[in-house]
Design brief:
About 75% of the residues lie in helices and about 0% in strands.
């Protein structure tokens, strides 16, 4: 019988021990629960798709109205709007089911983690979701209106825009998902710092190269060629880089402290 006390302190709660087949059974259970949640979320997503479509096309309607144009969007084939309904319902279903799916992943992984590892994973999931949603909100409120006004402004006296709702949805999805992923930059820096790949000194010293890389990424992601929209894309990325430097400083300080403590105990 082993003792749960080490150096006068209770040892951390260890991971659960399961056989290979018990792991497979548990994994199957979590996958089935996740699929059920996605299917249920998809039905809910299809039910509310019309209201969500109205929310999505609102920036486009505002851009068309401000240019004194007809603000109605169109679909160019008989199944266009139905396909949009189903596609949007599926995406919404995944979003609605994501808390259940994340919970199932957590229930599968958590028994094998120590207490401090569980706290780290929970913090990682919370910050990842928050930053992703912040990127989507920034894209919808700031980027889309600027981009759409710029695009609608290009028209001739004999040519007016006829916007397909499906193509507009693809553009919106690209912009919002792209910004959601870009806003994960501090999380990426967190992991690079955790493994000692980068340090705050390194990030600060190579700031000029980071700005160059951010400019290239902004030029690729920006759906319009104008410099103003590119600068709007770059501004949050630069801010997130500085936030990442702060995150790296905290992670590096704690990492060095743990290493120093481990070396002292080894002596």
């Amino acid at each position: 019988m082993t003792s749960n006390v080490k150096n006068g302190k209770p040892a951390e709660e260890g991971g659960a021990h399961m056989t290979f087949f018990e792991h497979l059974t548990e994994l199957r259970k979590r996958i089935i629960n996740s699929l059920i949640a996605v299917v249920g979320g998809t039905f809910i997503g299809v039910a509310v798709a019309e209201k969500v479509i109205g929310w999505i096309i609102r920036p486009m309607q505002h851009a068309l109205s401000s240019a004194n144009l007809n603000d109605k969007l169109v679909f160019t084939n008989p199944t266009g709007y139905l396909n949009l309904y189903i596609t949007l319902g599926l995406y919404l279903g995944i979003v609605i089911a994501s808390p259940v799916v994340l919970y199932q992943i957590w229930m599968f992984v958590a028994p094998a983690l120590y207490r401090h590892e569980r706290k780290a994973v929970l913090g990682f999931l919370g910050s990842t979701v928050f930053l992703f949603l912040a990127g989507i909100a920034f894209g919808y409120r700031i980027i889309l209106p600027v981009v759409l006004r710029f695009l609608v402004s290009f028209r001739g006296p004999l040519v007016v825009p006829l916007i397909s709702v499906n193509e507009y949805f693809d553009l919106t999805l690209m912009v919002l998902l792209g910004l959601g992923l870009i806003f994960e930059l501090p999380v990426l820096i967190f992991f690079l710092s955790l493994f000692g790949i980068v340090t705050p000194r390194f990030l600060w010293k190579n700031f000029r190269y980071a700005i160059l890389l951010i400019s290239i990424v902004a030029a690729i992601v920006t759906p319009t060629p104008d410099a103003m929209t590119m600068l709007v894309f770059m501004s949050p990325m630069v801010g997130l880089y500085f936030l990442g430097i702060g995150v790296s400083a905290v992670v590096t300080r704690r990492r060095n402290r743990r290493l120093a403590q481990a070396n002292a105990e080894a002596r």
